[in-house]
Amino acid sequence: xxxxxxxxxxxxxxxxxxxxxxxxxxxxxxxxxxxxxxxxxxxxxxxxxxxxxxxxxxxxxxxxxxxxxxxxxxxxxxxxxxxxxxxxxxxxxxxxxxxxxxxxxxxxxxxxxxxxxxxxxxxxxxxxxxxxxxxxxxxxxxxxxxxxxxxxxxxxxxxxxxxxxxxxxxxxxxxxxxxxxxxxxxxxxxxxxxxxxxxxxxxxxxxxxxxxxxxxxxxxxxxxxxxxxxxxxxxxxxxxxxxxxxxxxxxx
Length: 252
What we know:
Blueprint: H1 14-30, E1 31-36, E2 47-51, H2 58-68, E3 73-74, E4 76-78, H3 84-92, E5 96-98, H4 105-115, E6 119-123, H5 142-150, E7 154-160, H6 162-165, E8 179-185, H7 192-195, H8 201-223, H9 234-237
Parallel strand pairs: 1-8, 2-6, 2-7, 3-6, 4-5
Antiparallel strand pairs: 7-8
């Protein structure tokens, strides 16, 4: 059962019995959490949860808040993981295989999942932020495109604190002292006027900007700081948009 709302999606299934039985006690032992607005997560139906990305442990902490409010989160995962016993487990858990060589397959699979009633979690930046001070960097269009294609609500989430447990690109968690994980969920981003328009790049960019603005505002609320006037742009800064920014940028 979720801590704040009973599980809403019928039969739990063995993969989630295993995951919750193992992962949640570890998180409770290593973190404290402050959830604000979690009751906004819909009790049923498809939706997009759009977060900023600060640590490789984020998927676990995001799953924690979604689970606490009675839903199962779905993530996009590399198709190569869906082999053997691990693949069986991931499929049974409702995760989404994505073949990155197949072009639009990630988008198509995410749209299908939302239309079938799943909560799909999207890290809008596409990678852990490269902003040196941890603020969200420029967003990618995935969450906006899914929301526009499905008409499903997209809930912005600002989060902070996971990087204290596992710093970005580190393999060494900081296990001394329970770290405070803060998440604040905002109201659905209003995209109704854009949904009825042709989903041109300009329209998708408008939707992405609205989502990012909402996320940055929530992060600012958590941090009690003024956000940058302009989001960090990896391209302008000359760093890789994905992966470890300390590694040499591929300019080919």
